[in-house]
Amino acid sequence: MKAEIHPTYATATVICACGNTFQTRSTHAEIHTDICSNCHPLFTGKQKLIDTAGRVERFRQKYGTKAGA
Predict the structure, then answer these.
(1) What CATH number is given for 1-48 in this structure?
(2) Where are the domains of the chain?
(3) Which tens digits make up the pLDDT trace of 10-55?
(4) Quick check: 19 and 28 in contact, CB under 8 A?
C-alpha cells in the first residue's frame, strides 16, 4: 500500500433524527441519519410515516390525476 494516501479511519458519532446516538468507526467524525435501529419499523414493530417531499401530489398536479381515480 502507498503511504499517506488513505483517509484517517477513526471513531465516529452517529446521530439519528430520533435523538439516539452511538459510536462506530468511519472516515467522517459525525454521521447524521434519519432512521436507526431504535426507530426503524422493522425493529420496533410500529409504522412510521416518512415524508416523501410531496412527490405524489406533484405527480397528480403534473398529470391531472385525481385521488381515488
Answers:
(1) 4.10.80.400
(2) 1-48
(3) 999 999 988 999 999 999 999 999 888 888 777 677 765 555 667 7
(4) no
